[in-house]
Amino acid sequence: MSNILNDEKCLCSIKCHKNIKNSTKIVNFVTNLLSFGVAGMVTNDFKLTLTSENLYIEAIGYATWGGLPETMYTDKISRENIKSFEVKSEYSEEIIVINTTDDKTMTFIRDNEKNNNLAFEMGRLVSKEKEN
After folding, report:
1. Confidence of residue 24 (pLDDT cuts 50, 70, 90)
2. In order of start, what are the domains of the chain with their CATH numbers?
C-alpha cells in the first residue's frame, strides 16, 4: 500500500464492493470461456484509502490461477476534487456515493455487520477537511 500513497499519511481505509448485474457476470464468464481466460474478470472488490491529500480507489481482482488478490488499477482523486461523499445505512450495509467536480459519480457498498460505521467515519473526515 505504501507505494501508492507516496509517503502520504493514511487517515482511513475501508474495503467495499459494487453491485454487478448477473448479466454482466454471465457475459464475462462466456467471454472468458471462449478466449481461454484472456478477457479478464469483472472487478467488484475495492479498497478506499483516504489520506490528507487524496482518496485512492484500488480495484481488487483475483488471479485466475490460485485466486490470489491483486490490484487491477488504482484511481487517485484529489480531496479538492471531491464534491460530495455521502453515506447512508441500509440494513447491515453502508452505501457510499462519491461525486467529483468533473461530474463522476461512484457508488460502493460496505459490509457494516460489526456496526463500526467506518464509511460514515471516512465521510466525516472528508467533510471536516472541506470545512477548514
Report:
1. very low
2. 2-131 (2.30.29.30)
